[in-house]
Design goal:
Layout: H1 15-18, E1 23-28, H2 40-57, E2 60-64, H3 69-77
Parallel strand pairs: 1-2
Length: 78
């Protein structure tokens, strides 16, 4: 969840866990309710990771877009 992302959020080693997933959620961006330490640039890094993994595995995603609808759409299109 975007609220849980911090500058030191580590994504290394998560790929094997995604092999057993049917979908990925709740991923996205939040500039309304996320705490200050959850910076948007860090949220984008995490969102990109999960979108790339979802695409590679043909997984559905559940997107969180609070106050960042256009940015999330841009990332999905990317």
């Amino acid at each position: 969840h975007p609220w849980m992302v911090r500058p030191d959020t580590c994504l290394e080693g998560l790929e094997p866990y995604l092999d057993d997933c049917d979908f990925i959620g709740e991923i996205g961006l939040d500039r309304v309710w996320a705490p200050r330490e959850s910076r948007l640039q860090d949220q984008v890094r995490v969102l990109r990771f999960f979108l790339d993994e979802a695409k590679e595995r043909s997984l559905t995603v559940n997107l969180h877009t609070k106050g960042c609808e256009e940015e999330v759409l841009d990332e999905v299109r990317r």
